[in-house]
Amino acid sequence: MNDRPEPSEKRQKICLQVATNVTEQKHNVTREIRGRNLGLCRGFRGCTVWLTGLSGAGKTTIAFELEAYLVSRGIPAYGLDGDNIRTGLNKNLGFTPPDREENIRRVGEVAKLFADSGVVAICSFVSPFTYDRKMARKIHEDSDLKFYEIFVNTPLSVCESRDVKGLYKKAREGAIEGFTGITQEYEEPTDPELIVSTDGFTVKESTQSVIDLLETEGIIPKTLKDVGRLPELFVKPEHKDALIHEAKSLLSLSITTVDVQWVQILAEGWAYPLKGFMREEEYLQTLHFNSILSHDGASRHNQSIPIVLPLSNEAKERLADQSSLALTYNNKLVAILRKPEFYHHRKEERVCRQFGTNHPDHPYIKMILESGDYLVGGNLEVLERIQWQDGLDEYRLTPNELRKKFREMNADAVFAFQLRNPIHNGHALLMQDTKRQLLERGFEKPVLLLHPLGGWTKDDDVPLPIRMAQHQAVLDSGVLKREDTVLAIFPSPMMYAGPTEVQWHAKARMNAGANFYIVGRDPAGMPHPNKQMYHDGNLYDGTHGSRVLKLAQGLDNLEILPFRVAAYDRSLACMAFFEPKRKENFEFISGTKMRTLAKTGSNPPIGFMEPKAWQILAEYYKSVVQN
């Protein structure tokens, strides 16, 4: 007779052994320090979310959706899945009651360590016994850590109909003993922090109830909550007359066309969470960190470019002691600026940090250098929607209007394409290819936000009305499908600030509901005013914009899609993605070359641009030459 204990007996004996010569070692790093330095959200958020329920209830699906949500918002989180744990740490445990107890004990201890380090540990385990779950809770409570028991209450019939792993079938056939719900009882939680249903609900809907709980508990800062409707800075219609009446008693500051464009940006929510022109603290954060701290101090919002209001020394002296200012444009009231804060406009510091140069021939830098020596910040109350009466106002959709439009189109992915130039078939190829990739990833209704910049641009750029007519011709041709494209105008001025400005373009589209962003070569760039400065004659490296975007803080809800370079393929007589191995077959057609073709009455190669779109562009270039 062999007296050697069976493996399961041996495991039980080992589990009963208690180490007596062990002393807990205290960390040098406190939870408070971890909270200040771990992740993008300040504050200690370590806790354990324990998802329990039958096999197939949806525990792991919710756990991984929640993990992705938290990580995308800068909150460290990690999903501890039952199957994953049993392939490693607990691979020596079976499914007997003692082994199940030890499985949960080990997981509880591991989750406690994760939580103590500042991570949100998301545990998805059947954990059928009340005693085991209480043990896991006590492990956390003894260490003063939060523990949230989530009962994923999916009926047995639904779980069995899903049977993703085929386990229910095997259990019914007797191939698996002690299977919870079939041959072993599941003890339902009597007092969980939350009960979640997955039957008849989407993954996002089921996960949202867990997110709501964590927001209520302060694990997820309220500033990171997905904003259904962005706050706008327009006064309510019923208060409009009162604002006009008040403005008559206020000293006024006349603002420029570009200033009004920034008022529009702020009022419509593109720069959320800004509530007006930047005060000095917001300005400093923008210059030095390309981001601003949220109102509760828990996180940072990307804000790479200053949105400021310059004024002269004389205006500052005249307005310095005022509690509110009336902002006017062409002698008409635009907005009231509350509690103005005046500070020095250190132009050299601003332009060097924002543009990487202070060359006076850069068009936007020139505008800054010619502006006032002071800046004034403060909250805005804007009288009404900004209208430019140029026949294009219908395309100036606000972020909230765009979000609503995407919902009406049943979009499950929105990919934005920023442009300030005419569209050729290479652009169209890129957008078509992006849609293909999203469909292959499982999205059913990807929608393109075709979003030309509509604010101030330098003199030699193609004017907005010409670009919009050209874009419409591209849509009319069917190269881009109207049913899954939204053509709208982004009202921001163009600064030509390279990688710094690219972050602003992406952040604004994120506020408008985009979750994918196509970034091209040398976005927001321009030739260097001194063309001899660099070997390529450009102010910025053509690859830096896309590289910076992938690293930028506060753009976590946006996936950056790389721009594949397209050129005219002579061998195929169409635009195609550039292949270095066949570089002799490709021709890059620049804006300069297009202007030359139009000037001489020539056409570009067939397949470069839709004929009607080219005709609109050619007529514009001819008019410029004639003038």
TrEMBL record:
Pathways per UniProt: Sulfur metabolism; hydrogen sulfide biosynthesis; sulfite from sulfate: step 1/3; Sulfur metabolism; sulfate assimilation
Segments crossing the lipid bilayer: none
Location in or out of the cell: Plastid, Chloroplast
Reactions catalysed, as given in the entry: sulfate + ATP + H(+) = adenosine 5'-phosphosulfate + diphosphate
GO terms of molecular function: adenylylsulfate kinase activity; ATP binding; sulfate adenylyltransferase (ATP) activity
Alphabetized UniProt keyword annotations: ATP-binding, Chloroplast, Kinase, Nucleotide-binding, Nucleotidyltransferase, Plastid, Transferase, Transit peptide
Record-linked Pfam families: APS_kinase, ATP-sulfurylase, PUA_2
Domain APS kinase residue range list: 45-196
ATP-sulfurylase PUA-like domain ranges (all copies): 227-385
The Sulphate adenylyltransferase catalytic domain, residue ranges: 394-620
UniProt entry tagged with the keyword rRNA-binding: no
Xref: InterPro entries: APS (IPR002891), APS_kinase_dom (IPR059117), ATP-Sase_PUA-like_dom (IPR025980), P-loop_NTPase (IPR027417), PUA-like_sf (IPR015947), Rossmann-like_a/b/a_fold (IPR014729), Sulfurylase_cat_dom (IPR024951), Sulphate_adenylyltransferase (IPR002650)
Main location: plastid
GO biological process: 3'-phosphoadenosine 5'-phosphosulfate biosynthetic process; sulfate assimilation
Assigned protein family: Belongs to the sulfate adenylyltransferase family.
Protein name: Bifunctional 3'-phosphoadenosine 5'-phosphosulfate synthase isoform X2
Organism for this UniProt entry: Glossina fuscipes
